[in-house]
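Researcher: Let's do a round of design. I'm pasting the structure tokens now; please hold your answer until I've finished.
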């Protein structure tokens, strides 16, 4: 997750929403691998990801999930902010229940033989692609996201 934090900071992500079953963001390995980016990002936590996704959609967020099986390529999708990405675990990806709640599910085109991408790499590709769209829009319209993001509680330390 440290690499995701570092990448999110690079691409100007405003907020990271962390589910209750995520690794502790203040775990020494996470802090070290974030290369300090952890301290330049805002976080919010939720123990009810499904409810939070629905709240984001009610606030006009496009909630984007990714799976290799999706028919829509990330490159063909042109959406406007605000956006939220769902990134799953390395081992299990995004659960089918959460996947169904996404506004849209995209695939990252594969040209080689690798079975899958590391979650940090997939997240980085999504952040890169959509930051290109967002920052061109930001220069026209000002701030990317509304200030009233849903948050049930701050992430708890020590959760895995």
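Researcher: That's everything. Go ahead.
Model: Designed sequence:
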């Amino acid at each position: 997750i440290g690499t995701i934090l570092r990448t999110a900071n690079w691409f100007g992500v405003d907020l990271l929403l962390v589910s209750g079953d995520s690794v502790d963001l203040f775990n020494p390995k996470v802090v070290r691998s974030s290369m300090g980016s952890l301290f330049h990002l805002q976080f919010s936590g939720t123990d009810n990801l499904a409810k939070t996704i629905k709240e984001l959609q009610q606030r006009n967020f496009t909630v984007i999930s990714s799976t290799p099986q999706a028919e829509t390529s990330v490159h063909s999708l042109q959406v406007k902010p605000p956006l939220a990405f769902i990134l799953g675990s390395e081992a299990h990806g995004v659960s089918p229940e959460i996947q169904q709640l996404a506004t849209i599910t995209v695939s990252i085109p594969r040209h080689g033989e690798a079975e899958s991408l590391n979650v940090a790499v997939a997240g980085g590709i999504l952040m890169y692609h959509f930051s290109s769209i967002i920052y061109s829009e930001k220069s026209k319209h000002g701030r990317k996201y509304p200030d009233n993001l849903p948050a049930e509680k701050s992430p708890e330390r020590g959760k895995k």
